[in-house]
What does this fold into?
Amino acid sequence: MKMPPSSAGAAAFVAENSGLPPAPDEPGAAVAALYREHALGLIRLAYVSQGSRAAAEDIVQEAFCGLYRRWNQLTNSDKAVAYLRSSVLNGCRNAARRSQRPPRAVTYLPPADSAESAALIGELRREVIAGLRRVPARQREALVLRFYLDLSDPEIAEVMGISVNTVRSSLRRGISALGIALKETT
Amino acid sequence: MNCTEDQFRSILHEEAADITADSVPPLSLPDASPHRLLGAGSRRRRWLVPLGAAAAVTAIAVAATVFAGSGRAVQPDSAAPSLWRGVPLYYLTLSGGTPQQPTQELVVRDTRSGATLATARPSGCLPSELSAAADDRTFAIACQLRHGGRPIKTDRLLLARFDPATRRLSVTALRLPPISSYSNIAISPGGTRIAVMSYKLPDPPSRGVATLRVYSIATGAARTWTAANVFMRGDGVSWGRGSLLAFDFETTASDYTYSPELPGSGVRLLNTNAPSGSLVGASRLVIPTTHLPGGYLNLLAGQLVVSGNGATVATILCLQPGNERAAEFAEFSVATGKLLRRWMPSAVADQSVIWSDRSGKTLVVIARAPGGFPRKAGLGIMTDDQFTWLRPPAVGAPGIAF
It folds into this structure.
């Protein structure tokens, strides 16, 4: 997984790219070490995908708890980060389902920012993020993995557990959907 | 508003930067260790483990007997010899594509054993899409060009030939114009032509132009059919008998909602010997996507395969709108457009169709086991009621061509 060097979360993902630190024997310590390395990047991923900071933190906590519970079933500790990433994306999907707002029925609501924060956040950014929230979940996931994490089609396919062709289709639809959402917002 | 991809990328990073390192909450794990979470006192009752295992084996055996014949999964070793009849001996796939191994290689595998027979690494591009001719040793590859380490939206077309005698895979760049990365490719069964279906979105995105090009590999000559002012959902293409090409043409009034498809949507059949012109005018609708019983066609790219005799189309029937994982295999008649059968072996969950034999009764699919951790995923051969996993058992399925 790649992150641009300018991002504050780069360190976590660079660490991931360069391989995991040796896993301590104790599962709790191993999971805690992974948390120190990857929590920030994963919370950011969940936040960008899902939109709520609190929910993003919960989703990541839940993912690490799930990893801890299943630590003994992990045959290869190198798979831990891949498991966490998939868990986070699953968590985002479940959160979207729980919100009982299926993509097709979403009514556009501008984000409830204060006047001060609205002024701070660029108008374009606000519109784009609002548009992204309206894109169907799978397409949004593909967009975030491509444009936030800069993953290639095959990498996205592996993370999402779908074929490369489906990734391409989702990306294309997602870009189209985002464009339409932006057009309607303005 | 015109939001380019680079702007979108930087906006996502700005948004993510709202979360700072000092705002990450501490990890709160359950008090009990994973061992204890499995059940208090488990250490004291270890003698129960063999008994439990025996009971589980008995239960599985009983279940297997009860469900025998209804979608059971078998291993390649125990598969009947007839299972392999007509299935290509070799297939092309990709290795790598993971954060640990980003560089991707083309890999030729033996279908039965899963053994790697040959590898090749194209220079200057990242293989992303594969297609196989009928001889199981000629392959077309869309290879994504990179600029400054980042993928760009352009693919180069490559041709790969595998020689079983020398176990060499030779890859050559075709003298064809680069294609959009959002294209789907299919090499003809004879390995002489390549079909490229692409869908170009205007900027800002609105209704786009769907273009189907068929190139002669020998001469580079192309025929082009277009449909303007459409929203396209899928772009699957599959060669049928002779010069016939089936393609997925799902047009909707709006792309970002699961809106009903417009009349004329579905699987269309094009005679590629016809002159260039209108994509809709030159083709005929063979499987309309509307009014299907119990679901709708999910013709996501690559999930459309014409049988070798050109009589049927195997694809996926989606049972819940928007949920691509609630799906069944479906077989349609090309002649009448009727749904001939739909089925779902209990051994698999979500899936994609990759290859069909001449009769359409044997399929190669990408599948995932319905449960377990991590979920077993890989290639399988599927007949009416039997599903057989192929080796190697777990593949990320980044790209596979049969």
